[in-house]
């Protein structure tokens, strides 16, 4: 079974600085997707960035980028130029890319609570 | 804007009194999911509908049921809420199971 591990329950960063959130996963599959979701306090969970396992190039979305190391099964999120609005719980998630019912469910890590200090 | 809507945003119910949470979507997605999220935890998938096909997670209690009368709406019924069912309930949709999921804002359920 696939598992996702986020070893940092809480992180803190100064405004305008860079922070990296860690995520490791375990799978025997070769084709899958990895995601970072952001959940601000009492607000909607939104997709920050996604990475297809077959792509070697790391995904980037504006200030957000990932370091995807497939052999090491590592998928970290880097937030550059941190802003107060980045404060949230961040969840790393895995999903199989093989179509087939239950195998397509999102498997979440336990989350990292990011605080941004002004 | 196309979106996932959940009503109500906050629901208070009494111990043992049935409650229904609602989710609607304007994305015309085929799959609708219900998650339970307890404080400071990751969302836990309860079940999902792929069109009219219902898929229950093995560890979802029988106390939780769902209905999907049409593409746009999906309901979560809790037949006899216990104190342990107090949580945030998230609805999500996706075009099909291999596409990414879009989440609604959630309904926070309190059981008194």
Describe the fold and architecture.
The complex is a heterodimer of chains A (118) and B (112). With 118 residues, chain A is mainly beta. Helix content of chain A is 0%, strand content 51%. In chain A, strands 2, 5, 6, 10, 11 and 12 form a 6-stranded mixed sheet that branches. In chain A, strands 3-9-8-7 form a 4-stranded antiparallel sheet, with no helix packed on it. With 112 residues, chain B is mainly beta. In chain B, the strands form 2 sheets. In chain B, strands 2, 4, 5, 6, 9, 10 and 11 form a 7-stranded mixed sheet that branches. In chain B, a hairpin with a 2-residue loop joins strand 5 (44-50) and strand 6 (53-56). Chain B is globular. The model of chain B has no long low-confidence stretch (mean pLDDT 93). The chains are: A mainly beta (118), B mainly beta (112).
Radius of gyration of chain A: 14 Å
Structural class of chain A: mainly beta
Distance between the termini of chain A: 41 Å
Percent of residues in β-strands of chain A: over 45%
Topology diagram in text:
The complex is a heterodimer of chains A (118) and B (112).
Chain A: E1 3-5, E2 10-14, E3 19-21, E4 24-26, E5 32-39, E6 46-52, E7 60-61, E8 64-69, E9 74-79, E10 88-96, E11 107-108, E12 112-117
Parallel strand pairs in A: 2-12
Antiparallel strand pairs in A: 1-4, 3-9, 5-6, 5-10, 7-8, 8-9, 10-11, 10-12
Chain B: E1 4-7, E2 10-13, E3 19-25, E4 31-37, E5 44-50, E6 53-56, E7 64-67, E8 73-78, E9 87-94, E10 102-103, E11 107-111
Parallel strand pairs in B: 2-11
Antiparallel strand pairs in B: 1-3, 3-8, 4-5, 4-9, 5-6, 7-8, 9-10, 9-11
């Amino acid at each position: 079974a696939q598992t996702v591990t986020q070893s940092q329950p809480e992180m803190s960063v100064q405004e305008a600085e860079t922070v990296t959130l860690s995520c490791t996963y375990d799978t025997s599959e070769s084709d899958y997707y990895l995601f970072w979701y952001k959940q601000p306090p009492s607000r909607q969970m939104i997709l920050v960035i996604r990475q297809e396992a077959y792509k070697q190039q790391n995904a980037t979305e504006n200030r957000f980028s990932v370091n995807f190391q497939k052999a090491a099964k590592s998928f970290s999120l880097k937030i550059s130029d941190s802003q107060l609005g980045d404060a949230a719980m961040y969840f790393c998630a895995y999903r199989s890319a093989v179509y087939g019912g239950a195998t397509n469910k999102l498997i979440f890590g336990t989350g990292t609570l990011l605080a941004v200090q002004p | 804007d196309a979106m996932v809507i959940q009503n109500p945003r906050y629901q208070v119910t009494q111990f043992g009194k049935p409650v229904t949470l609602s989710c609607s979507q304007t994305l015309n997605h085929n799959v609708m999911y219900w998650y339970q999220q307890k404080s400071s935890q990751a969302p836990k998938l309860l079940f999902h509908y792929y069109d009219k096909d219902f898929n229950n997670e093995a560890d979802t209690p029988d106390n939780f049921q769902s209905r999907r009368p049409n593409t746009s709406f999906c309901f979560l019924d809790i037949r006899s809420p216990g104190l342990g069912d107090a949580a945030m309930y998230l609805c999500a949709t996706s075009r099909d199971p291999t596409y990414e999921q879009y989440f609604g804002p959630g309904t926070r359920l309190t059981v008194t």
